[in-house]
Specification:
Strand content: under 5%
Helix content: 25-40%
Number of strands: 2
Strand order of the largest sheet: 1-2
Low-confidence stretches: none
Number of domains: 1
Shape: globular
Largest sheet: 2 strands, antiparallel
Mean pLDDT: 91
Structural class: mainly alpha
Length: 94
């Protein structure tokens, strides 16, 4: 899975009129998790430039490491709980 990234001008134009907003890291994590839960093939989350989508830089390294392990193992791991932003990040593993 590759999160949509602005940078070509078209998405910026859509954003100015409210028709595009970049994905949030939480949404990307949930999409990767959902794909893995389906057990219908391997699912990989593109981790390049992931900081663009993060709202909390404190928990980003742990969340990125979690996604990387899930890419390799194809198993949904427990969610990351952040003390800096005080919110659970992603869904808990089933």
């Amino acid at each position: 899975m590759i999160p949509t990234r602005a940078g070509n001008g078209a998405l910026e134009a859509l954003a100015t009129v409210g028709d595009f907003s970049p994905p949030r890291l939480e949404t990307f994590e949930a999409a990767v998790e959902s794909g893995i839960w389906l057990h219908r093939g391997r699912v990989f989350g593109d981790l390049w430039d992931l900081q663009r989508f993060a709202t909390c830089q404190s928990c980003l390294p742990k969340r990125q490491a979690r996604l990387q392990r899930m890419n390799h193992r194809q198993v949904v791991e427990d969610s990351i709980h952040c003390t800096a932003c005080a919110r659970p990040r992603a869904r808990p593993a089933h």
